[in-house]
Amino acid sequence: MKASPIMFLEYLGMLGVPALLVVLAVFSLAGIAGAARTVLLLLIAADCLVYGAVSLRTVYLHGRGNRAAHTR
Amino acid sequence: MESRKRLTDLRGPQSRIGRLLSFYFEGWLHMFTNRVMVFLSLLYAAFIVVYLLVPGLGTPLKIVTAAVWVLWTPQFFEALKALALVGSRGLAFGHLNEEFAHLYRARYRKHPGPYTAFPFVVLAGWIAGFVVMLLRWFP
């Protein structure tokens, strides 16, 4: 598997989703709810979507046509 | 006439992650949870949207969030280790031989101590966040 610029987004998700989840925990500790928490949940959903979509490409689609080169 | 050697990758296909298990459990765990999270993260994103639209799904959201939190841990930790590895020019979590490590320390005046501690310190915050989420978050 070769690295590709789009994999940057995967690593951004790998660090970004946990960071947002920790913010969610801080929100619950500080008693922040309502619109702010809804926006945070939407950000988590968006980050998960990007991470999932890019990972799907990286793991199952990227370099598929060149598989023979890895197995030989 | 130029003759080129054919390169052979002895590791086999990267998609066969089970090969890691016999010599690198941490790497295998990272790859295994990554394969699970590829699909679970997409489902989680959809579930958050459904939760925001349909009332009464608070407890399932909390359970799925806890599962995502646990499964994300190996990947988060490995990403932090990668940051420490890059930041310390391979001195923390790298496999430089002793002479290289000595020359790197002398050349770049880097001490791997803080870099080695970094992933574990952040991991402690991550685990504390998990406990807070379980005890204080009621969606």
Description:
The complex is a heterodimer of chains A (about 70) and B (about 140). By secondary structure, chain A is mostly helical. Chain A has one domain. Chain A is built from 3 helices and no strands. Chain B has one domain. Chain B contains 4 helices and no strands. In chain B, helix 2 packs antiparallel against helix 4. The longest helix of chain B has 30 residues, at about 60-85. The N and C termini of chain B lie far apart (about 70 Å). The mean pLDDT of chain B is about 90. At the A-B interface, helix 1, helix 2 and helix 3 of A face helix 1, helix 2 and helix 4 of B.
Question: How would you concisely characterize the structure shown here?
Answer:
The complex is a heterodimer of chains A (72) and B (139). Chain A is mainly alpha-helical and 72 residues long.
Annotation keywords:
heterodimer, A: 72 residues, mainly alpha, 0% strand, elongated, B: 139 residues
What is the number of independent domains of chain A? 1
Shape of chain B: flat
- The portion of residues assigned to helices of chain B is 55-70%
Overall number of strands of chain A: 0
Cα(first) to Cα(last) distance of chain A is 14 Å
User: How many strand units of chain B?
Assistant: 0
Instruction: Output the structural class of chain A.
Output: mainly alpha
Helix fraction of chain A, binned, reads over 70%
Largest sheet of chain A: none
Largest interface: A-B, 34 and 40 residues
Model regions low in confidence, pLDDT < 50 over at least 5 residues of chain B: none
Our measurement of the CA-to-CA distance between the termini of chain B, rounded to an integer number of angstroms, reads 71 Å
Mean pLDDT of chain B: 89
